[in-house]
Amino acid sequence: MAKTVYILNGPNLNLLGTREPEIYGRATLADVEKLCRSTAAKHGLALEFRQSNQEARAKKAAGLIINPAGYTHTSVAILDALLALDAPVIEVHISDIQSRESFRRHSYVSQAARTVISGEGIDGYARAIGELAAMIGAKTRAKV
Ligand code: CA2
Question: Is the pLDDT of residue 81 over 80?
Fold first, then answer.
């Protein structure tokens, strides 16, 4: 059976493509989901793609990719939840959080993340799936 990877998107990411295209690009969250589904399929992974304005749990995850959005910079609760998870975590940001306002430069979530991908636009999600696939030993097709 295919391993399941969770992609969790934090608050307000449903607004992607509607505002601030100079920071976040023009792709919508539906476009991000489409990209993630095709990338996951290439790696033989099942995908749960969620957007929530609240915290989410992912009990059956073989691995987890999270864009915690604004919670990145505020939430010890999300950090604790990720530390309690027995699966590798990758943190993704569409924008480069290190080159924006000073309050965005600190991430609580990074302490629980094996890898942080920031500033690659929505392609960062596809890279995260590839890296997670390698970490969890997914059956990636030869030509991805
Ligand atoms: O760059 C990212 O992916 C962020 O996680 C996005 C968060 C921001 O608070 C983080 O510092 C960096 C914002 C999510 C809301 O996204 C919007 C997109 C378009 C219009 C309004 C909000």
Answer: yes
Classified as helix, coil or strand, 137 is coil
Q: What is the pLDDT of residues 31-69, one digit of tens each?
A: 999 999 999 999 999 999 999 865 555 667 899 999 999
Q: Give the Cα separation of 121 and 3 in Å (integer).
A: 26
Amino acid at 78: I
Percentage of the chain modeled with pLDDT above 70 = 94
The per-residue pLDDT for 141 is 81
Closest residue CA from atom 13 of ligand 1: 69
CA of 58 to the centre of ligand 1 (A): 22
Ligand 1 atom index nearest CA of 95: 1
Backbone angles phi, psi at 63, to 5 degrees: -165, 160
What ligand 1 atom has the least distance to the C-alpha of 96? Answer: 1
Catalytic residue IDs: 24, 93
